[in-house]
Recover the amino acids of this structure.
């Protein structure tokens, strides 16, 4: 089995290293990831600039290839140009910081897995809730379990999994919960500052607001010590509203 | 009425100029847009760099403010910092090139309108199918009609409209059709090239594939000469699959 591993924290992040090592227990791992951190890039593509690829070595052995692009670029380029055959699985992560609620639409981690699903490859994104000194070990173990689940069953075409792991030790995690994307979101409060040359600039700050607390909400599962597994797709059509919209008298 | 106008082709693009002029018939227009083209940036945010704002003048009169960020940054910054009160409507466009099918997940134009909806402001994105010498006049007229529809009725919370206008004269356009996001997508074929210093690089190329042809598909409506109006939301949960996923034995 061939597994493509990518992320948005960049190829030098600890999370992708731990993920690649864990995934190697299941098959042949290819790492293709952004050269530098590309968090909050959403589902961006690099169209106006060339993409360059360089090998990254650990202890003289090739660990993976770094691309001067986005997570979505990495998956497209890996599948189309860098791998001999398409992978059987795309795994994106381990992101440092949860990707839940509204925030998943800004997430490069999720966008990479979405790109895999667009290419009809079974795919999942995995993130670990933020903490000052993160241990990615439990999330790496859980990534293997999720991969085994996906291989044992089947994801429908166009559906991928968005997996979030709480910032807990393995034995403190209660298990898995199938969840939905909640309404949690980052509420911006821009700071207006003055630079050394006297010119004003703005910097995004703010805090997270989680308005919904139901048991099936991704953020709730995390808070209650469960791994949140949300099936997501890339059909944005608001179907329940289509009939009413058609009555507007266009 | 206060209307925020933005885009992803940049504040100097013809499309946003035509849109702003048309929207001025309905109320007070504020233009806040990227300084340079930020197409295919998806729903990206600028978190690691400061945002700077500069006024853009046309004939000595202020046209709008340019931000060194993404379309989503522009909407957040405008609503939180640059406008005295939140706008009553956010309009993003007129993009040069359709935003249909899978491509909407890469679209900065759509992401800006999505940001408006996240902030609970009625919002729509408007794009005009690509052609060599585009006339944005018909799309500007249609933007006014869509705005009037949204104001006369109401969009549900969390729903925005993604509007696409065919590359036709106004009298050739048959009318509006309420549509769904289709499966149309760009199929990449990277070109591997050698730079002047002998190093390899890759450039994204490819062609558009539209596999589904139903009457309610966004691309079909465009091809048949209709304005495609797709209601979209930012809840990515693949709800039909949740029950089956829960049976996987987690």
């Amino acid at each position: 089995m061939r597994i493509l591993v990518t992320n948005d924290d960049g190829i030098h992040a600890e999370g992708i290293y731990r993920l690649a090592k864990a995934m190697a227990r299941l098959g042949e791992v290819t790492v293709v990831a952004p050269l530098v951190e590309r968090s909050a890039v959403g589902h961006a593509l690099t169209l106006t600039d060339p993409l360059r690829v360089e090998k990254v070595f650990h202890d003289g052995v090739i660990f993976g290839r770094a691309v001067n692009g986005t997570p979505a670029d990495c998956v497209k380029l890996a599948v189309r140009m860098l791998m001999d055959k398409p992978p059987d699985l795309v795994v994106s992560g381990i992101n440092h910081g949860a990707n839940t609620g509204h925030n998943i639409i800004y997430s490069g981690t999720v966008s990479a897995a979405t790109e895999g699903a667009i290419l009809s490859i079974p795919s999942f994104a995995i993130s670990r809730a933020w903490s000052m000194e993160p241990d990615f070990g439990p999330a790496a173990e859980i990534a293997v379990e999720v991969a085994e689940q996906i291989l044992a069953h089947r994801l429908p075409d166009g559906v991928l999994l968005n997996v979030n792991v709480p910032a807990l030790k393995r034995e403190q995690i209660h298990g898995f919960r199938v969840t939905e994307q909640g309404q949690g979101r980052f509420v911006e409060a821009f700071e207006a500052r003055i630079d050394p040359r006297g010119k004003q600039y703005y910097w995004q700050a703010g805090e997270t607001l989680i308005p919904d607390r139901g048991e099936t909400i991704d953020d709730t599962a995390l808070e209650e010590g469960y791994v949140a597994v949300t099936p997501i797709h890339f059909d944005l059509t608001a179907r329940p509203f289509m009939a009413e919209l058609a009555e507007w008298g266009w």
Q: What stands out?
A: Chain A is about 25% helix and 30% strand. Residues 176 and 227 of chain A are 5 Å apart (CA to CA). The first helix of chain A runs from residue 14 to 23.
